What does this fold into?
Amino acid sequence: MSLLTVGSVAFDAIETPFGKTDKIVGGAGTYISLASSFFMDNQKIISVVGSDFPSNVLVDMNSRGIDTTGLQVKKGEKTFFWSGKYHNDMNSRDTLITELNVLEHFDPIVPDSYQDSAYIMLGNLSPLVQSTVIERMKERPKLIAMDTMNFWMDIAMDDLKKTISLVDVLIVNDEEARQLTDEYALVTAAKEILKMGPNYVIIKKGEHGALLFSANQMFFAPALPLAEVFDPTGAGDTFAGGFMGYIAASDDQSFENMKRAVIYGSAMASFCVEKFGTERLLEINQKDINERVKAFNDLSSFDLKN
Amino acid sequence: MSLLTVGSVAFDAIETPFGKTDKIVGGAGTYISLASSFFMDNQKIISVVGSDFPSNVLVDMNSRGIDTTGLQVKKGEKTFFWSGKYHNDMNSRDTLITELNVLEHFDPIVPDSYQDSAYIMLGNLSPLVQSTVIERMKERPKLIAMDTMNFWMDIAMDDLKKTISLVDVLIVNDEEARQLTDEYALVTAAKEILKMGPNYVIIKKGEHGALLFSANQMFFAPALPLAEVFDPTGAGDTFAGGFMGYIAASDDQSFENMKRAVIYGSAMASFCVEKFGTERLLEINQKDINERVKAFNDLSSFDLKN
It folds into this structure.
């Protein structure tokens, strides 16, 4: 089934203890659609870039089966730019530069050819942009998932909660779940989020794995213990892309299938952090993914005798 | 098969955000042997208490199948006492009082009737006391596991490393693994520890689960996401007791069985934190444990279709 991703396509400049990059292509929409492209050939993206954005990247997206009809190129404007520096433990980072540019007045137009999208993945963006896309769909998609960040909780909590009430799956990290609910225990935070509207919550814990909750079920996916995390940028978006790509490709919204999707999302994220930016995701193939998923299975499977 | 536990039997006074206790019975040896008593009837303990220690606790140990022949009662001396206060996040604590008392000059005598012990669990104690017990065993047991703490790394690293070189399984938490090896990534820290002698390393990550490593295998056991951690005291010891109790009872040292043992240890620890001290462990029965282990299985099992 078709998947529609809404998310930034952007420039990043990243500094980690292992090195630094010049401006490279990043953005939630880039990571999500790249990750989900391993699971499906017919996905669509809504985003916006400036005329400074390299057209060969869009051509590459198309060659990966990503329809860019809804990706607006704003003449004479500049692409969103983010620059950040990770601390030594890789778990925290400082934002050095944020230039909104084309994102400042982004009106997410939904092309008619996108109206058949059965699955929507709303990457981290202004909650108003996210809800606008939902409102512009003539038919309610089968499943809408959204990612968000503490930034929107700080400045637009009311809008954020309205958008959350419209989606089926909320994907946040542990700190965001705590901030959103004022609850420290993640089990309790998840329950509060389910009351806000979504039927499913995924709480990402970075190197400590991810939890999937429904009203009466819970699943934990480990993160693969890695000797080295080279660059965490985009890992959360890549997780979301792998998750929704798997769900949309299988067209199966059961909890059992969501568990598999969380594992595939975790596997995709584990590749993402191995090199700078999207570099590693551009190298891997289906065989690599299958092997990685098997590694997750080997890592966490056990057989109770009785 | 018989299991010998070496560890403190002590008094604790605990303060958490949920309340505080007077002096209650605690100590690594208490938690370990209590946890393992759910898996076997014929275990032994080596420890020391003062004449202030309530004899009914020892009678209760005996009734749970714990042989206390090797538990020395020092007339006119006082039992080891520890008092601590947990911070709001429950992940860190301050030690308020440590009175070594009988532990200061503890000579761990191994009774002849203990010489047939096939499995040994060395609870957190001075590494010299731990190695003395190993030296006093006439035959090398099938499997020796040890727990330790950063305290011994700070003041007795050489002795500690000597003792580590004598055991088969080292059980530490993430911070201890990092301090012991000067490696941040747990995969790398585990590899370094395996070079020190043990064939297996378990790295406990508290609310984030536990990792089991051998030279070429790795297993991750999640922690059960709990709405409330009431008192973490003894959780690590309880884990170790459940782990070694399961291994000794099944008399199976395969990696597959160790994985199960890690799950049982995690299940036992998840009970321990639900009430103060040993209170919850004294309430539960085999059915509770089986249900909890099933919850761990449900939490982490998934079925890859292909």
The mean pLDDT of chain A is 95. The domain at 3-300 of chain A is CATH 3.40.1190.20 (UDP-N-acetylmuramoyl-L-alanine:D-glutamate ligase). Chain A touches chain B through 36 residues (CB under 8 Å). The two ends of chain A are 41 Å apart (CA to CA).
